[in-house]
Every structure is written in structure tokens, then in C-alpha cells.
Amino acid sequence: GPTFRLPAAARRALGEGLAAALEYAHLLVLHPRDSAPRHLGELLDTGWGEDGVVSLAQLISFLSFQIRAAESLAALGGDDSSSGAAAGGIDDAEAPAGAASAGAALGSGTATLAGSAVPTGSEAPADAETQSGAEAPVGSQATAGSTTLAGSETPTTLHERVTEYPDLKRPDRFTRGGLGWLPWIEPVAEDALTDRQREALVERARTKSPYFRLLVRDPDALEARTLTDFDIFYNVDGGLSRAEREVAATVASRLNGCLFCASIHSHRAVQEDASYLDAVQRLLDDGVEAELRRGTGDESSHRPVDESSGRSEGESSPRLADESSSGTGLPSAEAGARWDAIVAASAALTRTPQAFSAGHVDRLHRAGLEDGEIVDMINGAAFFNWANRLMLSLGEPERIGA
């Protein structure tokens, strides 16, 4: 993906801490799959603490959810005025680059984020430990100590509080289940959790999870995120079925290249509805781009992509024509039409928020979804643009079991 490095003059004006945060925001917004341990090291090197890093990741990832939900709900409500798709679609070269231009609006000084001071000093700590660059997660082109950003050499040292796993059994493909996750920075130890942090975890079992014990460094953000998660996926009294919500989550995760999230939610989709087995497995094996081509039968309307490593894919145009549901692997034409419409809509809002348009809403309606079900689909796919970014930027998956 594209890289972004502030010029020296901008770094001096903003301070190293805020400059590093802006570059990290660009990474998470536009190509989270390229995240690597060194990116967290760069934040720590400029004075960020682990609590602040988690708060920053939550803020950026939440906004990735919020803008997708807002744009898509506006399209559902009949307002396509802000949607690029309403004017014939967004070209792949016109992906949003708000992070790259946001620096113009920022000044120097100290900002406050979730109770943590954002460091703006120009001196980086001198307590970094020299380590060999380990292989970046599957699908990433960036490895520690190997990437040049806008003419600035990437440091060959990694901050001593960042953990790499050179012998990790990394997954080399998307699977249903069978993956664990390891953090790149230290979670809160289970025996060190405060009462407030235990409350924010919501469920007692989450004290055993390194992922949630890492996120609980910002308990307010985690608690709000968890309650949002539960309401979107567990409140199934009416609206979209749980299986179809999990399909939306799987599409977003497959498109973003989040192997861990895709493994969990593809498995859950099949648990909820066994008839999804073949379709879900095909989605994991072949990718979203191939699934979109299968639905339309149009091999020319999408550019080819290399999905073998789980890299992000793009949808070149909304699917607005009458589509056949044959070949979905689902038991009925109605189920196939719903699958195709949900996959296309989830992919569109994941690729670029404004790409979700009235055309997608119309297709969902024609497939039999009511407005309340479309709201559930939007929230399910949008939420995983939040979850994927946290998983991808704070740690990496590992293969477990056979």
C-alpha cells in the first residue's frame, strides 16, 4: 500500500509524537494490513506509552467504523449527496487520503487523547534495543528495518517494549477457525487488572484474553466498543439473522486481510447456518473479488488482484444489474440472492465508505431485505472495519492445533 511520511518541516512544527501519530493514522485508515511491530515501536520511540498507543488505535479504528455506518445509513435514508457512487462510482485511484492532508490543520503543542498526553517533543528516547528485523505478518510488504518511507530510512532497531515472534507459526491462508492472536505490546497482566478494567471487560472470561487485556489499557473505549459489538451481533430479536450478520463481518475481514477475524466469523456463520458452508469456504479460498465476479458473471469489470497472501482487494463498481444467484452453493435462489447482495454491499462500504450507494440499497431490497435488516448488515460490516484495524495493527495471528 501507499506510505506516508511527513516532511522534516512539518515534523518540526508538529513535534515527533504528533507526527508519528499522523503517520500511524494514515496506515490504519488506508492500508491496515501493512501494519508491523515497527510501527508501534515508532510511536513508543517518540514518547507514546502503551496506554496512549491503544487509545490512538481505538480512536482511528472507531472513526473507520463511524464514517462507514454514517455514509451507508445516509444512502439507506435516500441521501446519496455525499456518495461518490451516486455520480457513477469512485475510481480506485481516488481512495480517500484524508490522513495525508490532515496535518495542515494541526498545530504544535500537547493534545490530550483519552486521558493520555500526546507527546510532541522532538527527542526520541534512547532506550531502544537492536534486534534483527523479523518477517512481517502474512500479506505485508513491510518488514522491520527494510522499508524506505519518502526517502527516510526505516530504523533498524526496534523499541525494547515491542515484541516480535520470529518462530511464530503464521497462517498462510484464510481458514475457518484454528487461529490464535499475539500482541506486539504488553497487555495488562491478569493479576494487575483494576476494578475499573475488570468492569470494562464486561465478561469475566475476557480476563484470559491477551487481546482484551491489551485493549483494556483504555477501559472506557473498550467498554463502549464491547457494548456496541454485543448490540450489533447478539441483539437478534428481529432484523437480520445472526448468520447473515456474520457473513457481513466475514466479507469485511476477508477484504481487509484480517485472517484472525475472518477465521472467527466465518466459523460462526457456518455454526449459525450450516447451509453457508460451501459459500463461506469459497469466499475464504477465492476472495471477495472472485465472489463479486461470480455473482455478475463479468470477468472484465474488476481488475485482477493477488489474494494469495490475504492482501486487500477492491470493488471497481457497484453491482446494479439483475444478478443470477446460481452457483452460490446455497439451497435456494432467494438465499443466493441475499448472499450476493450482502457480499456486494459489505464489500462496497469496506472498500470506500462513499461507495455504498442507493444502488446497493435497491439490490438489498430486491433480494428481500427490509430496512431494519439492512441497518444490521451495515452495522455488522462497518463494525469489522473497526475490529480488523485493531487486530491488524496491535498484533498478529498464529496457527494453533493441527
How would you describe what is shown here?
There is one protein chain. This protein folds into two domains: 8-158, no CATH class; 179-399, Up-down Bundle (AhpD-like). The strands form four sheets. Strands 1-2 form a two-stranded antiparallel sheet. It is globular. The longest helix has 27 residues, at 50-76. Helix 6 (195-201) packs parallel to helix 8 (219-233) and helix 9 (242-256) runs antiparallel to helix 10 (259-272). 47% of the residues lie in helices and 5% in strands. By secondary structure, the protein is mainly alpha-helical. It has 15 helices and eight strands. A hairpin with a 2-residue loop joins strand 4 and strand 5. Residues 292-322 have a biased composition (Basic and acidic residues). Residues 115-165, 292-333 are annotated as: Disordered. Pfam families: CMD (PF02627).
Main traits of this protein?
globular, 2 domains, two-stranded antiparallel sheet, mainly alpha, single chain, 402 residues, AhpD-like
Strand order of the largest sheet: 1-2
Relevant CATH superfamily of the largest domain: AhpD-like
CATH topological fold name of the largest domain: AhpD-like
Shape: globular
What is the CATH class of the largest domain? Mainly Alpha
Total beta strand runs:
8
- What is the H-and-E element order? HHHHHEEEEEEEHHHHHHHHHHE
Please give the share of residues in helix. 40-55%
> In the CATH hierarchy, what is the architecture of the largest domain at level 2?
Up-down Bundle
